[in-house]
């Protein structure tokens, strides 16, 4: 038969690995002496060797990012050892926010002091600054001016580039799809380009080599499976190595999933093209082709990934979140199993991906990090929010718990979140886990007991069932999987002289624990530095945008007043349902003008996508104008 060489080539590809040797020039069956067969074999073996370099590139990138992360972390620790000090003012009071804790008009007084002192540096800061060498007669003036101009030009380029990376474009009008920041988009495009390179490199796009292209697409697909699962896992080593937890990596997980679906589709289309152009004309019917065991397994796996891709789209997730949760777990398990039996060359990659999935799900999320507690459920005054509260008795930390991971009983950090399950609601909720930020303050090292609060807006599905249950039953048995979170925003705020937290609605569950955390650090540093008559200087501002005025009661006016009395400037614009959205751009700009002159500024935002984009772009403008601003957007989910 004319296509006998191709059949032998397909059989060879099913068995080939990186250790397979090329076919020699010795005697053999006629079809194996066919030059088309030899070219197919060479292409398949080249792909097996090429894909190894892909793993080297990925590991190299992770190594570089890890090195940058740990270098920055070491620098932050060094800066933390050198406290930012301010002297006593003329009246004998500390020239900082933490000193003002008694007067009812403390916030206004604090603002006046900040405005008065922002025009110049303090005496201690001047003393601690390196002395500038005076120019003498031997110093070339033109060379000095040229050096300054070059340095200024270099700083301007870096500043403009940082502002560009920070900027977030508006959503795509036709699809209403939210775009990430320019920096994230560039990294994503580079990653996609890398995969396109490995898909097409050293390929001749001709009909006889169509199978080599289809085989390469499948190889890129399976080679990415371990990476897909490692960046999607809630418990993974990348957080320790790079500082980026699964929340940040989630966008890469989604884009990689879409990329792999495209690779699988191209593989399927390529194999159909092989049948149509080479096998079909030689007498193999479409029925014979589709009922082949290998083809059937591949088509079933492709169908599973097609449904998985469709149900993972944001429009589907938002409308049918519970269905998405169940299908996401079931279909990916089915897809891995089908790919495992589809091609023996995929089994190493599938095995690694399956191991990551099982260790994350069974060992960590169900075993190590799962805690069952009894919580008090109460419906808030707005009649659309549930508050779950429970007391956590902290366990002493050990080296073993630090190594293998900790449950919520070992405490948590500001802005951490947990996955909540309430099995008593209904059967369908037994295996469902929904992410919620811990709204209460994180326990300190010396605390033995802490209160954990969750604020849950009733929308539909799980949250609607929960609020109905809370109206009839005060105490519920709940399962908490966590804590999870990243230290990036926290360390950025700690390292800032002006900390601005912007919360939209329930985003206060992220901002409020940060407020407590920063105040705890200030009080801790006060005790250490007080003997030398100085305080650590950090201005803390909270902007909380609410849709309804009653939402202020989620935290309580008394709690907000207490924060103000401790030096926090609290800004709560009128409810958006009454006056519309506030101009966050102008508000942030005014705060930086008032308090941020010559200071390191950190901005953290949590809220709707449109609000987060406004905050990010306001910070981008400030960076463009020369301000030292860093911004972080807090978001989590599947």
Describe this structure in words.
54% of the residues lie in helices and 13% in strands. The chain is globular. It has three domains: 47-53 and 180-365, no CATH class; 369-485, Elongation Factor Tu (Ef-tu), domain 3 (Beta Barrel); 489-633, Nucleotide-binding domain of ferredoxin-NADP reductase (FNR) module (Rossmann fold, 3-Layer(aba) Sandwich). The protein contains 22 helices and 13 strands. With 638 residues, it is α/β, with parallel strands linked by helices. Strand 12 (600-606), helix 22 and strand 13 (628-633) form a beta-alpha-beta unit. Helix 1 packs parallel to helix 2, helix 5 runs antiparallel to helix 22 (609-624) and helix 13 (321-342) runs antiparallel to helix 14.
How many structural domains?
Answer: 3
Strand order of the largest sheet: 5-4-7-2-3-6
Shape: globular
Query: What Rg, in angstroms, do the CA atoms define?
Result: 30 Å
Unreliable runs, pLDDT <50, ≥5 residues?
84-137, 526-535
Please provide the count of β strands: 13
- On the 0-100 scale, what is the average pLDDT? 83
Question: Which structural class best describes the helix and strand composition?
Answer: alpha/beta
Let me know the largest β-sheet. Answer: 6 strands, antiparallel
How large is the count of helical segments? 22
Q: Tell me what portion of residues adopts beta-strand conformation.
A: 5-15%
Helix content: 40-55%
| Gap between N and C termini | 52 Å
Keywords: Electron transport, Glycoprotein, Ion transport, Membrane, Oxidoreductase, Transmembrane, Transmembrane helix, Transport
InterPro entries: FAD-bd_8 (IPR013112), FAD-bd_FR_type (IPR017927), Fe3_Rdtase_TM_dom (IPR013130), Fe_red_NAD-bd_6 (IPR013121), Ferric/Cupric_Reductase (IPR051410), FNR_nucleotide-bd (IPR039261)
Family: Belongs to the ferric reductase (FRE) family.
Protein name: FAD-binding FR-type domain-containing protein
